[in-house]
Amino acid sequence: MYGKKGSELVKELASSEPGQLTAFNNDLFAQVIDECTGHLHHLGSLIRKIEELKKIEEIKKLNNQELEESEKQLLKAHNSGALIHHLSLLRNKRCLMAYVYNRAETIRSLGWAVERVLPEEIEEKLTGSEKEYFKNHAASLQSYMSELDLDLAVDMVPPKDPYIKVRVLEDIGNVLLSDQSANLARHAILFLRRTDAEQYISQGLMEELTG
Fold it and tell me: Residue 156 pLDDT more than 80?
């Protein structure tokens, strides 16, 4: 059935959690593209047949003749077939674009959460072009924030306190923070500036303690 594979691609996208990425479905994506190629081939063939019948119709008109009934039915069938393949091609195109666009939207949103380094479990779900897209977007975002001298990715919701309580999940070692030098040892519980802790939280190296 025409459009079934494209529909499966969109359903897969709709079934995933908002803001979450699944592995790029290369196999299904390629099947939809192959179907598009088939529609394009059939459409081109039908258009050539329609043009041939139109030429015959024009010649017959010059001789005060009409197309045979069988030729009229054939022209009608070719027109209907061409329309079906054309609409199916457009539908598949929309499905492919929706799949790529929505994944790009999610990848772009990651630029606000993980800075320039993607966690391994997310990176392995991306294609090469998606990784490059994230890299370029993150670089542009970082460049813009550097020009402003302002970290726009921190405190998307205004905090009540500039300091937060955190637990270190992995050994990070001695680091120089904005207001102190600290040994970020595993299991250590500290009060840090939100701006200092945010990058480690986004990388899964710390967790905020809210209790």
Answer: no
